[in-house]
């Protein structure tokens, strides 16, 4: 983002400041934000507002969103880069300029070349879609299913693909990495887990995470990002080394927040003596 865009942002937020009441509502109603400190929530609020400034949003004609609904979606995007600097978080949006929300899951006719040079054609039902240089497409039904601690988040999934593309424009599960993470360590850690998932499916067993992750290393990365933020206990329980690597990559630890939430819930539920 250049100097001119930064000036536009400063003028825009001076004219249209973050609506505090709406943001407070989001902080109390979006489960995924529970456990964040007031300092982090304040940072997330400004970054969410910046996301809405940077990205054009197209909704179905019959749909009208409140400012809270806009902020809820933006908050889940901004949450991914909450541990990074403002500049890094902004750069993580990559080439994204638009989010297109469609009513529900949609179908695409796909042509795919396998490792042996054979072209496969099939129809694929999708909750979201991302492409290099293109918009992020999200199903409204699946947006409404996102935002809790259940291991599903179409917003995080599709923006994980955008992160993936910051590496080499390819969607291969290897985003641009910070200097403190060795690319070989990243590749080896993810491939061990991905191969373990393949082995689980080949044995006819039910995997711990969504089996869609087994379709391609890029999908494995995106699904793991979903679980990292919305079911960190499950991901850490299956692949602790992969979870620890994502903690280093995102510079945040959702599992600590989840443990705090569970502890607070138990304290409330425990009868007094």
UniProtKB/TrEMBL annotation:
SUPFAM superfamilies listed in its UniProt record: Metalloproteases ('zincins'), catalytic domain
The organism's place on the tree of life at top rank: Bacteria
One CC-aspect GO term: cytosol
Family annotation (InterPro entries): MetalloPept_cat_dom_sf, MtfA_fam, MtfA_N
Signal peptide bounds: none
GO molecular function: aminopeptidase activity; metallopeptidase activity
Gene3D superfamilies named among the record's database cross-references: Collagenase (Catalytic Domain), Glucose-regulated metallo-peptidase M90, N-terminal domain
Family annotation (PANTHER family): MTFA PEPTIDASE, PROTEIN MTFA
Designated name of the protein: Mlc titration factor A
Source organism of this protein record: Kushneria indalinina DSM 14324
């Amino acid at each position: 983002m250049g100097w001119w865009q930064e000036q536009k942002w400063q003028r825009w937020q001076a004219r249209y400041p973050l609506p505090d009441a709406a943001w407070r509502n989001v902080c109390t109603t979006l489960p995924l934000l529970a456990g964040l400190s007031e300092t982090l929530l304040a940072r997330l609020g400004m970054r969410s507002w910046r996301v809405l400034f940077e990205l054009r949003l197209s909704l179905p004609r019959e749909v009208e969103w409140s400012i809270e609904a806009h902020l809820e979606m933006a908050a889940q995007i901004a949450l991914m880069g909450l541990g990074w600097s403002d500049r890094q978080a902004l750069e993580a949006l990559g080439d994204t300029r638009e989010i297109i929300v469609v009513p529900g899951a949609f179908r695409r006719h796909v042509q795919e070349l396998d490792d042996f040079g054979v072209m496969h054609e099939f129809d694929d039902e999708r909750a979201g879609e991302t492409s290099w240089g293109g918009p992020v497409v999200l199903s409204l039904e699946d947006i409404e299913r996102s935002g809790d601690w259940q291991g599903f988040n179409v917003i995080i999934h599709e923006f994980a693909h955008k992160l993936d593309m910051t590496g080499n424009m390819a969607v291969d599960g290897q985003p641009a990495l910070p200097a403190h993470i060795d690319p070989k360590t990243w590749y080896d850690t993810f491939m061990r887990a991905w191969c373990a998932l393949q082995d689980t499916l080949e044995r006819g067993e039910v995997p711990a995470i969504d089996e869609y992750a087994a379709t391609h290393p890029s999908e494995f990365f995106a699904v793991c990002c979903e679980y990292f933020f919305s079911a960190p206990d499950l991901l850490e329980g299956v692949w602790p080394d992969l979870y620890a690597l994502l903690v280093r990559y995102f510079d945040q630890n959702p599992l600590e927040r989840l443990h705090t939430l569970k502890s607070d819930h138990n304290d409330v539920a425990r009868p007094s003596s």
